[in-house]
Amino acid sequence: MYLFNRSITVNVRSDDTKTVTVDGVFLDSHHELCITLVVEIESRIIISAIGEFRRVPHTDCIETQEQIKKLVGVNLGKNVRKQVQAAVGLKYGCTHLTELTLECIKGLMQATYQLMHLTMKADQVNELVEQYLAGSCFHYKKA
Q1: pTM value?
Q2: How far is CA 112 from CA 22, 40, 139, in A?
Q3: For 85-121, what is each residue's pLDDT tens digit?
Q4: Cα(110)–Cα(44) distance, rounded to whole angstroms?
């Protein structure tokens, strides 16, 4: 018998050459949270953030939904985790919204590599990926 389940889904799309849209859903036995972030590709800044809490375990949880607007302006190039926690987490936020937002950002980073393949040669992309991920895991360990 399962006592708990959790799924996080992230979809990244680009409808133009200037922005990327990230849709995220956090679904578990007690929550259903949805967010959509629009990120300007060149600046790597969140320019739009909307979402809704469809199901929450406590009536006051819904109040933290308003924090989503504070994601606008977050710069994905520096101190991302700290910026996201300050915007939607900690004392007046929601830990699950923080998790969902960070997963959306990770998905965006993965999609960035796909975008690079559309505009750059494979060896250029590989070089940038090697530099960016150096030391991040076993595969990209530094020599």
Answers
A1: 0.88
A2: 12, 12, 19
A3: 999 999 999 999 999 999 999 999 889 888 887 778 8
A4: 14
| Length of the chain counted residue by residue | 143
Domain definitions of the chain by residue range? 6-109
Task: List the strands of the sheet with 19-28, edge to edge.
Answer: 6-13, 19-28, 32-40, 45-55
Cβ-based neighbour number of residue 42 at 10 Å: 9
The rounded distance, in Å, linking the Cα atoms of 75 and 39 is 9
Give dist(CA 119, CA 132) in Å, integer.
Answer: 18
Task: Give the type of residue at 46.
Answer: I
Is CATH 1.10.1660 the right assignment for the domain spanning 6-109? no
